[in-house]
């Protein structure tokens, strides 16, 4: 028993160290939690209670700007950034609670989409499922270097399979070019820059049609996708010159801060601080805010260890989801079931839209309890993979049984 407690203590210490180094391995935490739970050891009783994330609504006050009111539904944190964000993706400046017990009650409220799969599909019978997928933290694991957030071949094959059966869209904060380079699939819709850059596959995907109608090819170069796809909607086009200026200015102003990465996401700019030393965060935040202040038509939002400069237009991932449903001919349809899987705050806008439609499945990817508008949960990208494979298998099976039925078997 003593050995076990010592092991759990060591394991928990490792988790905490990982947090301090701005990393979080959800699977590892899960294992620690399992070891502790199996042996009836509460992490808190070890004096190392893990911490949970808290509602962003409680933490970030909406900005009141003198000139332009931020109309974007994403939270605007231009003048009121949260205090120290250096607790990795756990956002651990919140009340300390025991993760094992809180996770259980959270999952009771946001049931596993894998465990609930049969029930979900029962409701989906006769309805048209449209699949929306976030990229980072959903299709690819969160890693230090955003350029290395690659999607596995298995995941690509699963998305390819899903897209054979359902209209499928990737909605991401990344630039459209970057995400097409990562995903490399030709028959999905891509909505980059948090939905501000929407592109359709060469042949519009007809909803509800059989799998073989959607030919999915893995392409070698994003160029091939860019040229074969059609740009549908770019609501922030007029901001492009200003965004380029902001990008350059951010690069210049932050070049002396070690670990900062400025990512050009076309219609928005990401300032990554995952590898910035904690003591440098304050100055980074100040510099970023001073740049944004010069551009009253822009505001700041936050994601996982990232600050994002976005044009203040009323457009977010939720709007992109509605736009795509509309494009697919489902704007007022009562028999469409949008299914959205995402892990970050910007995905909440899409979850909210699905909830307000009163139809569909908002699914959050998280291995820790989080305040969310999602109804279901998956722990990590590996569970997303299982879910997607199962979804494709389910549809395939229903096609085969329908075919058998049609032939009188
Ligand atoms: O909407 P998403 O597809 O989830 O994109 C949101 C941001 O994701 C990326 O940053 C996040 O993932 C990185 C790689 O794992 C990680 O290093 C970073 O800390 C995360 O915030 C992307 O680089 C951003 O541009 C996206 O806005």
Automatic annotation (TrEMBL):
Task: Kindly list the residue ranges recorded as spanning the membrane.
Answer: none
Pathway(s) it belongs to: Glycan biosynthesis; trehalose biosynthesis
Q: What class of enzyme is it?
A: hydrolase
- Could you say which EC number(s) this protein's record lists? 3.1.3.12
Per its record, the protein catalyses: alpha,alpha-trehalose 6-phosphate + H2O = alpha,alpha-trehalose + phosphate
The signal peptide annotation in the UniProt record is none
Q: Which keywords does UniProt give here?
A: Hydrolase, Stress response
Q: Where is the composition biased (Polar residues)?
A: 57-67, 77-90
Q: Which GO terms describe its biological process?
A: trehalose biosynthetic process
MF-aspect GO terms: trehalose-phosphatase activity
Per its UniProt record, the required cofactor names are:
a divalent metal cation
Reply yes or no: does the keyword tRNA-binding apply.
no
Give the UniProt family note.
Belongs to the trehalose phosphatase family.
The record's function comment reads:
Removes the phosphate from trehalose 6-phosphate to produce free trehalose. Trehalose accumulation in plant may improve abiotic stress tolerance.
Return the NCBIfam families for the record: HAD-SF-IIB (TIGR01484), T6PP (TIGR00685)
What is the name listed in the Swiss-Prot or TrEMBL entry for this protein? Trehalose 6-phosphate phosphatase
